[in-house]
Structure of Uricase:
Amino acid sequence: YGKNTIKFLRLHKEGKKHFVKEVEVCAHLRLTSPQEYLEGNNSLVIPTDTIKNIVLVLAKKNGISSLEQFAIDICNHFMTTFCQVAYVKTYVQEVPWQRLCENGVPHIHSFICVPDGIRFCEAEQCRNGPLVVFAGIKDLKLMKTTQSGFEGFYKNEHTTLPERHDRILCGELFCKWSYGECKDFDFDCIWKKIRECILEAFSGPPDCGEYSPSYQKTVNGIQMLVLSRVSQVQVIEVVLNNTFYNVVDMKNLGLTNDKEVLVPVEAPYGSCACTLGRKKFFEA
């Protein structure tokens, strides 16, 4: 049980310069006894309102140096403060505020919300067990208008999809990864590096791009690049929900439409997912 959608803004000031972190937190506990379920005995139950207040107090006292560290702080607090807590899991996601720039000069106290992917993390721990930390990005919308196709797929009497060697590749990406032994990582730096890998693997070189024969191959390319460049990542999951665009037939309007006007197909949509990890992690 626990408290969901604990939303707050943490404002930090350094002189005239302001820093913001707006987050949403979900904190769940499992107690050492199920007596509140079986017997209606609430003597061990930490009220969910108390859970909410603890999260807010930790934000006030500790600040939010990174999402991952804040999730770790929450787990540590419940494990060290309450002997009746057997397991704690914390989820934190961030509102994507970015500092405004005016003529290239960063503003000291103004921000803009940029929907270029939502950062999130999870931390969980069992009593006498290891602390496990996950991080990720979701709702990241990506598109490239060429260098993508889909050919040579299996066909039968139900197949109506034509083969395409030049199409728009567009999708909404969810990516989640796990760390190995949680050491003193620079979580902000790692997250930014992984996001750069995602964008690079999806798009290819800026002057020519890179051909994608399928959404599946693009997903695998993202995972392989992350694992090759970020040693702290042990397992990475990627889900890519596809958005298709159909070319509008304008013959009746007396026009030739050479893939210049297209309409998105909202539903149904395809989706592909893959989880990839280092061999040593799975052997362990």
Helices lie at 35-38, 48-62, 67-81, 187-203, 215-229, 279-283.
